[in-house]
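Could you help me review a protein record that somebody else here produced? This is what I was given.
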Amino acid sequence: MNLSYDVKLWEIKRNQSSKAPSYVVRWAVGRKEKSRSFRTKALAESFLSDLRQAAKRGEAFDVGTCLPLSMLQAKKSTNFYTFALAYVDMKWPHAAAKTRDSMTDALSTVIPALVDQDATDRPDAGVMRSALRQYALSPATRDVPQPPEIKEALTWLDKRSLPIEQLAKPRLVRLGLDALTLRLDGTAAAATTIARKRSVFYNTLQYAVDLEELPSNPIDKVKAWKPPKVREVVDRRVVVNPRQASELLNAVTYVGLVKRGRHLKAFFACLYYAGLRPAEALALRESDCELPESGWGLLLLAKSKPQSNKRWTDSGDGHDDRGLKHRAEDEGRPVPIPPLLVAILRDHIKEFGVNDDGRLFRTLRGGIISIGTYCEAWKAARNFALTPDQVASPMAARPYDLRHAAVSLWLNAGVAPPDIADRAGHSVDVLLKVYAKCIDGGTDIANRRIGSALDE
């Protein structure tokens, strides 16, 4: 095999010569050029991204096929089980911890379903899931000593997994789709879980299409199977008004022993007054804050610390160290903050100081505050601040609902959607789609306009 690290990638171009829309990915390894056409631009971008990531991590490319070694490994796979392992290997180096968790979770559901249906001596479902999640799918745990039942389950899967070419048949792919709808105990899975796992399954099969192991994605041909609808809009019942938010923040200071509640007030205030995601607030440092003695301040967000199982992080820590969501790796996000939040943060720094690395919010030992800790404090604060009926309702049920309340407040204040999207860190399309039902007065305005038209 002739290998090379001399890789050149070009931007995607629309194929002008074909009648149906298609998009071409062109790249070169050494002096050999290669191209591949895709039906949609999204598919072309996905394939080009895989090539770029392989080149970025210093992977060698085969001059004969112009493919990186990780893709060649996938092409050599004889069944879906080994193909899935190769797919994980390709995605793993640049995937966030939560993505790794989600990917292995979905594949642990699908792989046991795509096996020879006449096979006997099928291992216990729980054992197969443990074998995949804890040993086989994560590259870091494949060489860990395996208990006999784990080794037997993986050997069985390797022998009984369907050949990858057979997955071109929609009836076989449906076995995997049907498996996504059930939990391990046989009860129905949540709509969001099904949608998340289906996305992983679809992308895995699309990778087989990219490598020309399948002619097209067979999931597109399964017409009778429809995933359940997922709520994509914010329930306006979770949104609190400024008075309620203020009462909740004050109630947080009554929670816990020593100074835990008072320490968390500023954390929750960042979610409401600046619209930060919890993981963004956990990464906030003093150097990221412009806090004048009067007037508006500014947060210059740079990092995020999402929580995940230690098994999925490169560092072995419970929190990943990532860039901002929907941003390039080193791209920051400026967020103007009102004088009220400026005062809260100044008081927080004065009372608690900052961690050695400059972080504003941390545990007593300087660690990252866990989801369980701040959610427990929030639950207690709701009991202090809200009426029994409100506590039983969805109102501000999760700390993340403070971010929803912030964006809803900005929309109803008449702030331009592009400005809100910049502050919140997502696109205008997502903003208007997700928060459409949280905009006040829309029904009254529509009724007046329709009434005026009828009176003409």
In short: The chain has a mean pLDDT of 87. The chain has three domains: 1-76, 77-230, 236-442.
